[in-house]
Amino acid sequence: MPTDWRRALAIVAHPDDLEYGASAAVAAWLDDGRECVYLLASAGEAGIDTLAPAEAGPLREREQRASAAAVGVATVEFLGHPDGVIEYGTALRRDFAAAIRRHRPELVLTLNHHDTWGGTYWNTPDHRNVGRAVLDAVGDAGNRWIFPDLAEEGLVPWDGVRYVAVAGSPQPTHAVDASSGLERAVASLLCHRTYIEALTKEDPETYCRTFLEGSMRGVAARFGGRPGVAFELFIR
């Protein structure tokens, strides 16, 4: 992965999206003195079958803030789009462009926007729509004639995004040596305990460690034996 950047903005659909692998890279980046802000399109309120959205949303926001803190991320923002039915369109692009102008990142991180996970499992509409809107919003953020009302609100165009890194892509191109961030990544994913306990009967810590270690080993096979986090990288 390129290293000629200092500020990152991670934009995903739900709490836990960043914790299934990417957070180990975020931890390593922060160790190197870089900055990262998390922006979530929704609170993930429709993600737990046994909890009504009105109860699940605030709980998952709290878990996400704790999860971010576990890797050293201090700023977590939520946009309030409805979980499960996030729509691709100009409203979503505008929200993301506004955040990019506000935080002025050089690297934007998002989650798999492709139709499938490795050609086997169908990706969710939220992931597809958010990921694609992120890619488009990077260009929107730098164009003064797209969403000109943002400039009137003080959010002047920002054309400084140099890279967009897509985690969980079925066609990765780059990797980050994230072995130093593994333990914090496990702790970070474990913060989503309510979600995990509804997802599996396995011991939560065993589940988190097994998943993340397995994912990083899979990257190591293509990364000189080093445990890592893989990304599909778009260069601007």
Automatic annotation (TrEMBL):
Keywords tagged on the record: Zinc
An example Gene Ontology biological process: glycoside metabolic process
Domain of life: Bacteria
InterPro entries for this protein: GlcNAc_PI_deacetylase-related, LmbE-like_dom_sf
Pfam families: PIG-L
Entry GO MF terms: hydrolase activity, acting on carbon-nitrogen (but not peptide) bonds, in linear amides
Protein name as it appears in the record: PIG-L family deacetylase
Species of origin: Streptomyces klenkii
